[in-house]
Structures are given as structure tokens and as C-alpha cells.
Amino acid sequence: MKALSYQIPQSSLKQTVILENDEFENTFIKGPLKGHPKTLIIIPAYNEEKNIGAVLETIHKKVPGIPILVINDGSSDNTESVARSHGANVISLPYNSGYGVALQTGFIYAARKNFAIAIQMDSDGQHDPKNVKDLIEEVQKNEVDVVIGSRFLESGSYKSSFARRAGIFIFGKIASIFCGQKVTDPTSGFQALKGRAIHFAASDHYPPDYPDADFIILMHRYGLKVKEIPVTMHASPDKESMHHGHKTIYYIFKMFLSIFVTVLRNVSKR
């Protein structure tokens, strides 16, 4: 088997020293999930000083004992200091490098520090930490490598714009076709990866822009097993996400292009 390679994204060279200065290298879960594998919560954040504190406090309250790594993606506000003051370890990128780069930085960290499970969450409060335990328990099962939290598997109160719902539906259908299984929420952003899936996300196969439907297809082509479970999500409180408003058209164009490139890539099953 060819070994996967991964390196610090070129736009994030400042991380090299920080990744070697680990503040919780041997930290295991100490709360109600005691006994579970070594787990890391990864949260990319850009100008989230208004939200990140409450998000971290909620995580500490609902799943205490799990170390949290915030990737401060070149924020111009106090995101870094607020995150540190609420008990998170922080890697600060020298400038805004984008969602995909920030996320992969967290996966590189998790791979280098031998975390068994990595939980990906958003920094704006959309993802409910009460579901972290569900993701961890599901991803530990032998038949899956990645568990995605879907807001559409059960009826809920989540609301979004028509354009966003249409985009989710279209890319869900495309991912379903290429993966040979139903994908309901390709833009969830709330997921758990374990073992080889973490190392795959830390490799040069990872999409640099918006790792959503394209990455789900890529993982399937690599031979990783992906499963969805129902989770609770809330509307973003203060600002537009990369899937809202005029950004939706740009996102749809970029995702179609990325899926096209993904299908052409030479990634064989392992």
C-alpha cells in the first residue's frame, strides 16, 4: 500500500512550530465518555469572536473532557484570544487561507498527534454539541470510517434559503450516484473521522476550498465507508455562511468544478 503524504499547507507555514508545541498530546476523554478513544474536536474559525466563546462553553458543558483545537483562519478580530480564554488550544494561520485549508490543518494536527477520532464542527453555533457523543459512538463501529451528521434524516426545525436547499439537494443526488448510497446532507460540516480517514484528510488529496460533496465522493473512491446519522442543527446566529446569499452561486459553481476534477483524479480504493 502506498503511504499517504501530508504537509503543512503552503499558506500556513507558521503552523510548523505550533504543531510541535502540543498542549494536550496525551489527553484522553475524562468526562461521561470516559473509555472512548483519544478524540479531538476541530473547529475552523474566521472572525468569530462573538460566537466562539459560547460554542466552546456549550461543548465543555455537554461533552466535558474532550480537547478542542480551534484553527484561527487569519481573523482580524479577537477570535484567538476568546478561544484561548475558553479553554481551547489554538493554531493561528498567518492570514485568511480558506475553510478547506483551516480544516486540513486540524486533520494534520490530529494525524501527527495520533488522535483516534477527529470531530469536525463549525464555529458559529450551528452544530449542537449534544450530538458529538452520537458521532463518536457510531464511528467506532467497524463498518464505518466517517460519520456525517445530517439535518435531513429526521424532521426538524432547521430552516434555510431556497437556493441553499436546492444546492444541498443537487449535490446530495450527485454524491449519492457516485457513492452508490443515499447522501442527504453533503454540506453538513459536522462529522467524525477515524484512523485512516483522518490521515486521508491530512493528505494532499484533500480539497483546498470547500470539502463537502467532492470530499465525500473522494473518500468513497478511496474505499472509506461513510454513514449519515440524524443530528440537530441551528441557524447561524449573526452572519452569512459560505453557502448563503450571493455566495451560494459561487459555491455551486466551485463545487461542480471540484466534483468534476474529483471524478478525474486517480484515487484507487485501499
How would the blueprint of this fold be written?
Layout: H1 15-20, E1 39-45, H2 52-62, E2 68-72, H3 79-85, E3 89-92, H4 99-112, E4 117-120, H5 132-139, E5 146-150, H6 162-179, E6 191-194, H7 196-201, H8 213-222, E7 226-230, H9 247-264
Parallel strand pairs: 1-2, 1-4, 2-3, 5-7
Antiparallel strand pairs: 4-6, 5-6
Description:
This protein is of the alpha/beta class and 270 residues long. It has a single domain, classed as Spore Coat Polysaccharide Biosynthesis Protein SpsA, Chain A, CATH 3.90.550.10. It has helices at 15-20, 52-62, 79-85, 99-112, 132-139, 162-179, 196-201, 213-222, 247-264, and strands spanning 39-45, 68-72, 89-92, 117-120, 146-150, 191-194, 226-230. A 7-stranded mixed beta sheet has the order 3-2-1-4-6-5-7, with helices on both faces. Strand 1 (39-45), helix 2 (52-62) and strand 2 (68-72) form a beta-alpha-beta unit. Mean pLDDT is 81; it is low at 1-8 and 10-32.
Characteristic terms for this protein:
disordered N terminus; globular; 270 residues; 9 helices; seven-stranded mixed sheet; Spore Coat Polysaccharide Biosynthesis Protein SpsA, Chain A; alpha/beta
